[in-house]
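Hallway conversation turned thread

IA: we were arguing at lunch whether anyone had actually written out Neuronal cell adhesion molecule end to end. Turns out nobody had. So, for the record, here is the sequence (1079 residues) and right after it the structure tokens. Reply here if something looks off.
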Amino acid sequence: MSQQSISIHIFMSGRSVGMLMSVSPLLTGSPLWSKEKLKPIVVREGVSLVLPCEPPAGLPPPLIFWMDNNFQRLPQSKRVSQSLNGDLYFSNVRREDSRNDYICYARFPGTQTIQQKQPINVKVLNLDSINDTMAAFYNDTDLFSEAPADERMPSFLIPKGRHSSKVVLRGHKLDMECIAEGRPTPEISWTKDGSDLPAGRTSFLQFNKTLQIDDVSDSEEGVYRCTASNKFGSVHHTFHVTVKAAPYWISGPPSNLVLSPGENGVLTCRASGKPKPLITWTKNVMPIESLEDDTMKVEDDMIIFRDVKTSNSAVYQCNVSNEFGYLLANAFVNVLSEPPRVLTPVNKKYEVIRNHRALLDCSFFGSPIPNITWFKDSRSSTLDGDSYSLHDNGTLEIRISRPRDSGKYTCVARNILGISENHVFLEVKEPTQILKQPEYRMIKRGGPVTFECKVKHDSSLIPTMTWLKDDEELPEDDRFTVEPESLTITDVMDSDAGMYTCIINTTLDHVSASAELTVVERPDPPTDLELTDQTKRSVVLTWIPGNEYNSPIKKFLIQYEDSLHHRGHWHNLTHVPGTRTSANLKLSPHVHYTFRVLALNNVGWSQPSTPSQMYKTDPAAPDENPTGVQGLGTEPNNLIISWKPLTRLQSNGPGLQYKVMYREKKPGSEWITTNVANNSRFVVSGTSTFAPYELKVQAVNNYGEGPEPAVVVGHSGEDVPKSAPTELRISAHNSTAAEVQWKTVSNDSIRGFLKGYKVHYWREHGIHRHHPDRVEKILTFSGNRSHAVLPGLHPFSDYSFYVRVFNGRGEGPPSTTKHFSTPEGVPGPPTSLVVSNPNLDSLTLQWSPPYDPNGHITGYTLKYQPVNNSNELGEEEVLALAANETSVTLPNLQSSTRYRFYLNAKTKIGAGPAITQEALIMVDEAMVSRQVDIATQGWFIGLMCAIALLILILLIICFIQRNKGGKYPVKEKEDAHTDPEFQPMRDDDCPFGEYSDSEDHKPLKGSRTPSNGTVKRDDSDDSLVDYSEGGDRQFNEDGSFIGQYSGKTTSRDTAAAEGPQSSEAPSPINAIHSLNSFV
């Protein structure tokens, strides 16, 4: 490398002065910069400056960057920036731009090497410094006599002039650059005449000095304007941009062509460019123009084939070119004669998910190109329409597959040489669905969590479920248990937090669902407690929150310990929101404070923090007086003053006492003062009875007194009232209530706090009966009452009462006793109601008068009505009875009917409540039982048939015996029978009545037994006594029997008198049923 020339350049103008020293070496050999040291560049402050880089040439061009000796990039800004050619431009220089290590580096991508230029030394001086410096070199000659570089309007350093042109290729990158000098530093802006800059492809680089547009299209052609401006003015430069284009395909390169002999075809090579490209064709590298072939013709960008032959099979090339580039494409033309062939495998099965797209292949080959048609199942019609789409390659597309689309499909390929077909099968499956997705879970650390993922799928598909955590496989950990429809994690840790996804895959589809797991825990205790802003009565406590474990802290609790008065006990002081980390604490005097902080989140409270340092407050006089001051006496001559004592925290210092002050509330009274320590009460003796006193209690300690206390009024002890109410009056509201009135006593005679009045009253006796045992009742009425109502009185009775006043000490003397009577009222119910003498159609009712007549009885009202088995009531009958009556007989009642009776008494005031009774009207049920109950029983009919058959056999035997002259043995037995209960049946009862068995005298199953357990006579005057063994029978008041029922054995005479009915011996069970039926 040899040095050819060294030159020094000095720039001087009216606006700027600069000196550029550069070395222009002649480079030979490899591309390297000159190693000769460059002379310093000295410039005046405020002028513009350009540091050239001028790297060696290279392919591709090198990448340029400026750095210092420490390999740090030099800072760039709107004032200092690098141009596209690598030079470093200063819009105006400053003193801080002075440095000796401006180094330009070039990185050559081809060789992956970096070359550096020799460092450039720049010195920025003001005018005086430049003159002094240059005089030393040039014999004290004043080189710079002009004024210093002042502020000025912009001018362009690059590009030069006001207009320039640029040519850019379509699809390439367009770069336009404007760098201006001026002071202050100019602002650069860009516009395009007539339109906006293309959005999404426009970039502003180098602090707006470079406009870059990517992927240029024809629309980017036009005029662009660059404007540099500062407060002194602006300048413009316009770029006329022309877009050229190398050839490019419009519809893609030509496609291969398969023809059969005699067919026509076209090869198209459609391309464009700017300028318009030239298109040439070759056949097997030979220009088509040189070939004599009447089967093909070139027209612009096409080759047209007519009536092709096998000789037309060749490789055709299309060449598209202009001055900016070219395109070259090959197309194969095959002239074949082949019948159709379907290449898709036979009976191929396709599976698709419902509502998805189905593609059924029908790959084919043939020349001429076969025509493809599709059929489903029976070949009734071709498949076309909106639901189907036939692709050029023969594929049938079913846009939305439905279950009905399942089945057999036939693909048929036809051309002039033949036909070919193939069958495929389609099965439409149900989609896989997630019925229950995993849900977001927030779990405390250490607990278990389960994510559910329940799916529904086609029965013919086998799903596989995979779980992912944060889109990765689950960790290898025994705590993770994967079940068929769930994932369970035990002993959850912080690292388990994340997004969990269940993925269900089948051979045809897959679905997935995700849920997040958040692991929470109680927060860690706060740390670094610090006390700041300390005063006598306040301090600021600050802290650093602990880890909140995914659950935000809701609040902080500040506690304190008073080691002076209550060591070891922590007290709650205040709460602050969870967003704060400090609190201004109000303090009390004479306390040794230690603080700690607890944090609360949704899981719970943290452990307490480490206590803060101790903070002691100085003693002071009390800030407050005791509360709850009151004065009450326990005796008529004393006054007890009491209060709620202050706590140790409230005492503010040692030596706490209470200054008690009192005086009687009357003119001229003086305050009496005494000090009380270690107590919360003071007793004043020798007072007047129930006298008002003014009271004050003040807190005092060794450092002073508390604030002036408030005055409280109290009273000395009470005594019982000394007067009684007077002027008693009574008025009855009704038969059960009366109003009492009295005149209240005077306040002086109460001698205490009035509590109220008490009314003592009692019932002397009723009008109809005497009550020798007096029962006194007391009603208490609070306050200064002068009247009261006495409730719950008995009608038609004499009463006495008196009134007392009472206070906190007790009751005063009684008033005079006054008497009064209550008016009549409605009577009570009759004492009893008894049913007696029930017959077939009548009965007798007996009753007793009311126990509480409550007046003069004026009569009775009897109501009765029938009741059926479902408790429905029939028509009601009403009967008015005299006051002196106590019984009544009701005739003409319905037999076998239950009746309900209501009886009440009346006074002149009205009717009282009723007493209720029910009774059943009985009949002779033996006949009814035989005629109805037994005759309708199946067992009875069968028994009768058996007896009839037996008698028929006996008759036959009897007839035979009579014919023989012998005696009928049964008749002999009948004649010899002496049983008094034996009762022969009459001929008109039954033809078989002369035969009887002891079983016939027992009640038949299903028959009803009379209520007294015996068969009743037909006569209506039968007595109940006739059915008992003894002559005496006892009755209850309601007419029911007392004792055990038993049947009565009748004689032959009685049986004969009663007619065809037979006597039956009652059983104990029947007797019980009879008793229940009667009652």
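OS: looked through it. The helical segments are 127-137, 648-651, 747-750, 925-934, 938-964, 969-976, 1052-1058, 1068-1078.
IA: good, adding that to the notes. The domain at 32-148 is CATH 2.60.40.10 (Immunoglobulin-like).
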